[in-house]
Inverse folding.
């Protein structure tokens, strides 16, 4: 065995060994070089870029899309239960309710849960509800999950279907205690009240009439209850996040009994004449309040507001008689002799006639025809009425008298088209009255400029005669007309 070079008493120093090894490396020609500045900055740049990407992703997920991902996170352990807020009630002027909220069932789906169900389960749900599968799928896919994680898929579902749905025990499908809007007197008030329906988000909204005009006031606020579950689906807690609130009640100026009487009387009168279309309005001239408003033919708004099937709804929507068209507010017509009292006021105001001024009506007036002198232009009265003054002319609806004061004839100068239009506008024709119903029409007030623009023709004296008795191109709505009559009556 070879003997060690060091004796027991010899000491080995660490510094010496280090220097010895270092000198050995030097002898071997090895050199240690520092890292370049370029490499250093490259590494730092990569680290900064990674940091920026990390923090931008955190900002995107935690700040910009916080609501979305919070809802998704809650959906993993919580379940939103929809609680509807009742819609406000509409009353007549004496406090009689014109609508009712009838208890019913709705079917709600929690979209995140429901999308995990099999296609067979989804098809089963569509079959029970009577909804085409593709329509149901599109409705669910179009829902904005960031706004609401649940969707009301169907309302007013009958008890038999509810039993079938409960037997299916579908994941993400809930049966909700809801209400359905009902109109006890259907067609009698439908043109006033309108009806309700679902919007694209499944919420109940007003679709026409008062229901649409005051939708924001009438609609309630839905409540939400969250049911918390553990990973196994066991309920561990229930929390009411928001209580439901009913919408505001609204009281109309309509008189229930007068509306019903007026509707039946007008319906019978039209039936006796062999006609179906007409409009009627009752107004208080002291304050302009509408007491009754009728448009015929009418429609049953219960059919359009959940109670009718699709075939019944299509019959209303596609009827050639246009029952949903509100003729009292949206229709425009030539006013005929109803315009004459207003014209009489204009003629008195402008000094065209006095109440005693007399005009002779042989049953017509004639004016020269410059193109054929042998055939003068003749404008007929409904019959020969003899001598009439302002009072008897209105009482007998004498056309010759109003030809004269409107367009001028004989020794009566006449108002002329410009003055006639000025007074039409003063009495509110040609503009909206402001009635709180949607779809109010404006009408049309003719003048020489309008005729030349739309018909490429000049204005003639005959045109003035025609509008002087409420004919020709003059168009007004029934609500404008009765507003004008009420102004005179007051």
């Amino acid at each position: 065995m070879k003997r060690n070079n060091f004796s027991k008493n010899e000491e080995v120093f660490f510094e010496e060994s280090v220097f010895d090894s270092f000198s050995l490396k030097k002898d071997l020609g090895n050199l240690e070089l520092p890292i370049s500045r370029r490499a250093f900055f490259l590494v730092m740049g990569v680290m900064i870029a990674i940091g920026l990407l990390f923090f931008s992703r955190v900002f995107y997920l935690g700040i910009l899309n916080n609501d979305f991902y919070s809802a998704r996170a809650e959906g993993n352990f919580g379940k939103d239960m929809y609680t509807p807020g009742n819609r406000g009630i509409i009353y007549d002027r004496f406090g009689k309710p014109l609508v009712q909220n009838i208890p019913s069932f709705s079917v709600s789906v929690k979209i995140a849960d429901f999308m995990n169900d099999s296609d067979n389960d989804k098809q089963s749900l569509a079959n029970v509800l009577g909804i085409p599968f593709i329509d149901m799928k599109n409705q669910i896919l179009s829902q904005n999950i960031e706004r609401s994680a649940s969707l009301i898929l169907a309302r007013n579902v009958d008890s038999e279907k509810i039993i079938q749905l409960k037997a299916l025990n579908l994941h993400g499908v809930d049966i909700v205690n809801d209400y359905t809007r009902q109109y006890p007197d259907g067609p009698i008030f439908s043109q006033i009240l309108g009806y309700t329906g679902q919007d694209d988000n499944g919420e109940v909204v007003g679709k026409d009439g008062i229901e649409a005009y005051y939708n924001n006031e009438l609609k309630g606020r839905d409540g939400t209850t969250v049911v918390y579950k553990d990973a196994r689906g066991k309920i561990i807690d229930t929390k009411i996040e928001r209580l439901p609130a009913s919408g505001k009640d609204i009281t109309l100026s309509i008189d229930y009994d007068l509306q019903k009487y007026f509707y039946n009387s007008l319906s019978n009168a039209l039936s006796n004449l062999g006609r179906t279309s007409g409009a009627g309005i009752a107004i208080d001239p002291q304050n302009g309040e509408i007491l009754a408003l009728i448009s015929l033919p009418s429609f049953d708004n219960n059919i359009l507001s959940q109670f009718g099937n699709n075939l019944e709804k299509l019959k209303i929507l596609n009827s050639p008689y246009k029952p949903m068209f509100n003729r009292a507010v949206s229709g425009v017509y030539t006013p005929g002799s109803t315009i004459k009292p207003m014209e009489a006021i204009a003629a008195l105001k402008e000094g065209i006639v006095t109440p005693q001024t007399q005009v002779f009506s042989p049953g017509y007036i004639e004016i020269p025809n410059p193109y054929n002198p042998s055939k003068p232009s003749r404008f007929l009265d409904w019959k020969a009425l003899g001598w009439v003054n302002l009072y008897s002319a209105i009482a007998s609806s004498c056309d010759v008298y109003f030809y004269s004061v409107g367009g001028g004839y004989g020794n009566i100068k006449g108002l002329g088209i410009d003055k006639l239009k000025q007074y039409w506008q003063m009495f509110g024709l040609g503009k909206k009255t402001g009635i709180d119903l949607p779809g109010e029409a404006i009408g049309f007030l003719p003048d020489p400029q309008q005729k030349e623009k739309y018909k490429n023709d000049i204005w003639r004296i005959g045109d003035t005669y025609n509008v002087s008795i409420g004919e020709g191109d003059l168009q007004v709505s029934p609500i404008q007309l009765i507003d004008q009559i009420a102004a005179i009556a007051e």
